[in-house]
Write a structure and sequence with these properties.
Elements lengths: L14 E5 L28 H20 L4 H10 L5 E6 L2 E3 L5 E3 L10 E6 L15 H15 L9 E3 H4 L30 H8 L2 H10 L14 H7 L3 H9 L18 H8 L2 H7 L5 H5 L6 E2 L1 H17 L1 H4 L5 E9 L5 E7 L5 H14 L2 E2 L1 E2 L5 E2 L1 E9 L4
Parallel strand pairs: 2-5
Antiparallel strand pairs: 1-13, 2-3, 4-6, 7-10, 8-9, 8-13, 11-12
Amino acid sequence: MNRKRLLAASCLTLAVLGVAACTQGKPEGDVLVEGTSVSACNDGRADTTFLAAMRESDAAVRKGLAEGSANAVAEANKALDAGDFRLVGATTATGISTEPYGVQCRVLGGLSPWSIRAIAFVADEAAAPGKVVPDDTVTGFGRRYNAAMLADPRYPYGDVCRALDKAGPMPALPDNQDAGIEQPYGFAELGTARMAHGLGAAARRGSVSDIGVLIERERQAVNTPDLFGLTPLAWAVAYHRWPAAEALLRAKASPTGATCQSVIDRESPLQVARIMRWYGMIRRMRPLVTEDEFAALRQKPRWDDASLSEFNHALTELKERYRAILRRQNFSRHDLLFQVDEQGNTTECRMEPASVSPGFDKELCGLAVEIVRWTPARDAFGTRVPESARLLVGFGGGN
């Protein structure tokens, strides 16, 4: 995503705007958007009838909680009968959590609003792992509801969301940023699954025979995203199931994910493989996407915010020293062009076009090289590579 950072300026109107291609914005026809704009996504979240039924059900739960008549077990059974597998969760200032209601879900990047039935706002400290919260009406309902969901054999995500007392500690992310995340989604220890749990559950377990049967029954499901936005192929990759992934690819499963997803989305099969640094799977899927799609996985260098702030202060001093000279030119914009190595070090800097002062240009580049720190660029496989970077500088004028 193009990011911009305005650096303060006084009389010389000096500004720096950073340009770094990290991710791309998703199209308006996004899989998380409701209604007809995503009707071609083959996504249950685009089914207006299903959405209306969910809203009606949620409204009934909120009304029951307000009146003190909500029955958690009965509501869980109603949801399961309707194919609604959302757990009760809480919104917090920093995200969404099911932990206040006794469940831990292991989903890279956290849960989305779609994936839970939010019944309360909970302060972050109350939602912290292991935090004991009062068993009031709402909390008690959420705990009983989630327990009923997890205990029911119809619930298909027992390997993704588990009771806190059975979940164990969250796995630590690798300290080495070049190492892949071994298990980006779900728990490594899988429970049993039924055919009715669908292609995603079969893919997680590497059950090639079940995959074959299910594809014959409903071929269009091969690229259908589930509650967590993952297609069966993405799940097969996340659980390192090569034979299952092969079976799905032979059935025309898309490495870019669902119809309304793109290769750079966190949930796309190719991106999951890249996060895991599963190079063999990336190479297997590469011929199945366009060159542009594969190139979109590349990451440009990204500056460190703290260092850019420090650079801003240094620029303030520099512009004051060159104030009289820079006033001679009209306000204009200049590119600071860098070469950044695999370690994030700047190896080259130049400014185009040059200003009226070669001395200012040289000192400005010297400050940038000395102060600004970068996260190294990565190629489509996730490997560090040298790459160019750019900051846009604007200065000059009589004010």
